[in-house]
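Quiz preparation item.
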């Protein structure tokens, strides 16, 4: 004999099964109808990064150190906070590039640095210590080419040169200042 208690329990069970089925159906529809991810949204980030890229011979080609990097699928680009990048070359000393910000595009085919860019090279067998200061710099790590259209200060012992624009072959240490070049030579006593 059916009692009011049994009828209520049966109705609650039927209601629970119905709501569960509806919930599962809605979640499956949401999963299948979701929009593809926005390529302008970050898809990954890293903190306390030390990453080294090696060449075909297994020698370091590029080393990036940063407290934070954020990757975006759009153009396979990465925003880098306070980067320190070492560009290794045939010489025993790499070029050291620091800035407040950098962005890579298409993996690491191109790196754009901006805000207080400092490019430094320790003295080696053939070249004196060299420092360059500018507000933006683009490097092509595979080609070991660096360039800027901005004002640049080039500093070597006893020499300081101001110019606008620069093109440098970081491997051969060939630096071409492009325009408005003004220099100071003050030999050490």
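Solution:
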């Amino acid at each position: 004999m059916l009692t009011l208690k049994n009828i209520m329990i049966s109705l609650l069970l039927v209601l629970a099964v119905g709501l569960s089925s509806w919930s599962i159906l809605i979640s499956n529809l949401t999963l299948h109808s979701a929009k593809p991810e926005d390529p302008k949204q970050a898809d990954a980030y890293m903190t306390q990064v030390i990453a080294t890229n090696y060449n075909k011979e297994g020698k370091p080609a590029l080393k990036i150190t940063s407290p934070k990097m954020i990757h975006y699928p759009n153009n396979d680009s990465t925003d880098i906070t306070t980067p320190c990048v070492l560009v290794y070359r045939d010489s025993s000393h790499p070029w050291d590039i620091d800035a407040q910000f950098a962005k890579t595009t298409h993996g690491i085919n191109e790196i754009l640095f901006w805000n207080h860019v400092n490019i430094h090279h320790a003295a080696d067998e053939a070249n004196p210590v060299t420092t360059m200061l500018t507000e933006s710099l683009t490097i092509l790590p595979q080609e070991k080419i660096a360039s800027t259209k901005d004002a640049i200060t080039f500093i070597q012992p006893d020499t300081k040169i101001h110019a606008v624009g620069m093109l440098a072959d970081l491997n051969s240490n060939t630096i071409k200042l492009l325009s408005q070049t003004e220099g100071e030579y003050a030999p050490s006593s």
